Amino acid sequence: MKINNADNFISVIAKLLRCLEYNDVKETGGDNGIDITASKDGKTYCFGCMYDIDAISEKKMKVLCDAYKASRYDVAVFVTNSSFISGAKKLGEENGVLLWDRNTVDRMAIGISES
């Protein structure tokens, strides 16, 4: 799966989730910090997705953490093509957010065709 730029990042992640057998995958538009919702194994998930050339900052992580706290989702995941600065990692972990950086996404995508 190729992530070309910020314009296709969310849709590629949505495709990846479908290939990983997540159900009811929906792109939400991200107005509140949640870009994708899905379910798997009886849990509901919200995903914040950020394509960035720089590492993800605490400020960007806080947007998803706040949206997650205000939601009824069981699990929150922050997905990026980049990495996380230490403060963002700490904030995410303190709020129970799973962190998927470029290495995690690459490992998940191994063997998945674009079709």
What does this structure look like?
The protein is 37% helix and 24% strand. With 115 residues, it is an alpha/beta fold. A five-stranded mixed β-sheet has the order 1-2-3-4-5. A hairpin with a 2-residue loop joins strand 2 and strand 3. It is globular and about 35 Å long. The model has no long low-confidence stretch (mean pLDDT 91).
Précis, in short:
The protein is an alpha/beta fold and 115 residues long. It has helices at residues 6-19, 58-69, 86-94, 102-109; strands at 23-27, 36-40, 43-50, 75-80, 97-100.
Enumerate how many helices there are, as a single number. 4
Biggest sheet overview: 5 strands, mixed
Number-wise, the strands total 5
Elements, N to C (H/E): HEEEHEHEH
Structural class: alpha/beta
Q: Any key phrases for this structure?
A:
five-stranded mixed sheet; 5 strands; globular; 115 residues; alpha/beta; 4 helices
List the helices and strands and how they pair.
Elements: H1 6-19, E1 23-27, E2 36-40, E3 43-50, H2 58-69, E4 75-80, H3 86-94, E5 97-100, H4 102-109
Parallel strand pairs: 3-4, 4-5
Antiparallel strand pairs: 1-2, 2-3
Helix pairs in contact: 2-3
